[in-house]
Amino acid sequence: MATKQATRGKTVYKPFSMSSKEYKAFLKNREPPRAVLANCAKAFLAGGVLCLIGEAITQFFVAVFRMTPEQASNPTVAMLILLSVILTCLGVYDRIAQWAGAGTAVPVTGFANSMCSAAIEHRSEGLVLGVGGSMFKLAGSVIVFGVVAAFFVGIVHWLFGWGS
Amino acid sequence: MKRGKRSWMFPSPPVIRAAGTVVGPDEGAGPLAADFDLVHPTLDLGQPSWEKAERLLLEQAADIALSKAGLKKDKLQFFVGGDLTNQIISSTFAARTIGVPYLGVFGACSTAMESLALASLMVASGAAELVAAGTCSHNCTAEKQFRYPTEYGSQKPPTAQYTVTGAGVALIGAGGEGPAVTAATIGRIVDLGVKDPFNMGGAMAPAAVDTIQAHFEDTGRQPEDYDLIATGDLAAVGHPIAAELLRRSGIPIDNTRFVDCGLMIYDTSKQKVQAGGSGCGCSAVVTYGHLLKKMAQGELRRVLVVATGALLSPLSYQQGESIPCVAHAVSIEARP
Amino acid sequence: MQYVWAFLIGGGICVVGQLLFDVARLTPAHTMALLVVIGAVLGGFGLYDPLVEFAGAGASVPITSFGNALVHGALTELERDGWIGVITGIFEVTSAGISAAIIFSFLAALIAKPKG
After folding, report:
1. Backbone angles phi, psi at B327, to 5 degrees
2. Of residues B150, B154, B155, nearest to C116 (C-beta)
């Protein structure tokens, strides 16, 4: 690109011209770095604690309701979802998540938070179009990709005659 | 009036008769809180939706400006306004309430200076005697529309910016008391291929540099002719980049105070705003609240406000497009 | 002892997610979709169930287990009903989670307002 000199009074300056590639490299060097290690440590801690809570709930259902661990996983997930919904409604989930990052996003609580936050946010657009229509705005891709992946895995199993 | 490639210099400069600024709680907790006319303690302003709250900000700012100028609504001839919402509904519904002939503009976060430049042009060219230029933004409507539902737990990176909840309206008249708008430079779209909507400052910096250069080239002015040059919302990432690019191209930007509204409106060390403030309201409330106050107190005589806007849409980003940006500059001078 | 592994494995899967956020620069939606697919693929190879037995909630709470559960549903029905089972069975196991999320989110929308 041209770098013609423009003279105005005493000061001479070069009109700003940088190619997209040059600028993106320039920008990359000047971006505040993400605190990857610190974020991973926080995510590890938060995610670990959430799974601990999940484990405690599972053991509770096994002990009190005489369920097997597999049977207990359903109510465990439901309880964690309820916890996530309550924290979202109280307006604290997003603050915890800013600290915890993937630690709150990866567990099923993140899934529930994505649905709950969308539902309460779009309440202003009505129950049908707002709450109903927008609830899956963020969670939709998880469900779609999970289902499609399960379908292909299932088809592969069928084609190769593997057992389940 | 036209100077150089894309600037206007007004021989009989239009006057900012009065301005009103209304902000939310986060801005009220910031360093400039005392300079705003009205600070709301809650984000929802007692309204049933974020969108209704945003338009109330703008309506209140307009009312305050009119009462400060001692004028009634019916004296207002035109209203030039815009905001970040889809179809700029906040400005439209506010214009409905104000009841004035309305020109809606979209400049994203550059709207404050875009509307000020246009309003000044209308008055300076004799096309109007009293025009209101206003804009607003709201943190929650911006998050809901451009990013995620407000209660969604996504982790914002350090380059992200915090949309200002605020509205600023200025009344520009053909004469009277107040600081004058002496020149304006209109920006062109600058897009260097940045695609990250969480680094707006980085995307917009080149547009600011482009407009600032054009301003000096067209008007023949130099940085030291201004007591202060403020960019709209480049914030902690974009502002140093703009300064460096200006120095690299030979513009002695260090001969004046080069600041950024997004860095002034919040205390980035104490408030959780990542890189700093953004949004249409950012440059509007800082200019019409803080800068005009400093000029009235005699601390600033001539300032250049360069508001920057990132003109992406949620759809364009999803379709893999980069972020086209623009910057509009307006020079405001205290009357002796 | 199960608690220790639940903590470590659960935390570890979250670290994978955090690396996808910070290093690969993926959005949360992309990250979750990827993790769910990984869970489905591991489940298809029979590798996820041993992890659940070993780590308990550390493997069943992260979103990866959702992919595993979807695959379980598909494969169980496949064995019972043939190829059509791949489609009919997918939501069998996960229906509790999805239903709970929908119902609680809906109720939440009736009583709670976003706080910003």
Report:
1. -140, 135
2. B150
Distance CA B29, CA B13 (A): 35
Give the alpha-carbon dihedral of A114, A119, A121, A123, to 10 degrees. Answer: 180
Question: Residues in chain C, how many?
Answer: 116
Instruction: Say if pTM beats, i.e. exceeds, 0.90.
Output: yes
Q: Does B271 touch chain A (CB under 8 A)?
A: no
Residues in chain B within 8 Å Cβ distance of A105: 153-155
Who among C13, C90, C105 is closest to A151 (CB)? C90
* Alpha helix ranges (H) inside B100-147: 111-124, 139-146
In sign, the C-alpha dihedral spanning B100, B105, B106, B111 is negative
* Distance from the first to the final alpha carbon of chain A: 62
Cα→Cα distances B254→A10, B189, B312, C3, Å: 16, 26, 31, 59
Two tokens at A117? 């936050």
ipTM: 0.94
Return the amino acid letter for B279: G
- Establish if A55 touches chain B: CB-CB under 8 angstroms: no
For residue range B133-169, list pLDDT tens digits in order.
999 999 999 999 999 999 999 999 999 999 999 999 9
- DSSP per-residue codes, A87-145: HHHTT-HHHHHHHHTHHHHSBHHHHHHHHHHHHHHGGGG-IIIIIIHHTTTTTHHHHHH
Report how far residue B244's alpha carbon sits from residue B258's, in angstroms, rounded to the nearest whole number.
11
Residue B158 tokens read as 């350090």
pLDDT score, position B292: 97
Show the 3-state SS of B206-253. HHHHHHHHHHHHHHCCCHHHCCEEEECCCHHHHHHHHHHHHHHCCCCH
CA–CA dist B95, B91 (Å, integer): 6
